[in-house]
Amino acid sequence: DVFGYDTPESLTAETDLLALVHPADRATVVENVRRRIEGGTGTAHYAIRCIRRDGRHIAVEVHGSAATHDG
To answer: Tens digit of pLDDT for each residue in 12-27?
Structure first.
């Protein structure tokens, strides 16, 4: 796994997902998520630095688009 966890479940059970984002990039992530929740953008594409379980920094490219779930 990219972040060094065995399964997606272990990743979400062991850490706050924002803690995986490099401190210098957290505001970018929070702002992009806020805009998406408020309906401000249909798609998102940006690059951030993240932190693996072993502490190494990695480059991550984020792609997202709006979707409706259960209605």
So the answer is: 887 788 999 999 999 9
Q: Are 11 and 5 in contact (CB under 8 A)?
A: yes
Report how far residue 51's alpha carbon sits from residue 58's, in angstroms, rounded to the nearest whole number: 6
Q: Where are the alpha helices (DSSP H) in the chain?
A: 8-14, 26-37
The C-alpha atoms of residue 27 and residue 5 are separated, in whole angstroms, by 24
Give the span between the Cα atoms of 58 and 50, in whole angstroms.
5
* Token reading at 46: 């940006």
If one counts every other C-beta atom within 10 angstroms of the C-beta of residue 5, the result is 17
Strands (E), 1-71: 43-51, 57-65
What's the predicted TM-score (pTM) here?
A: 0.80
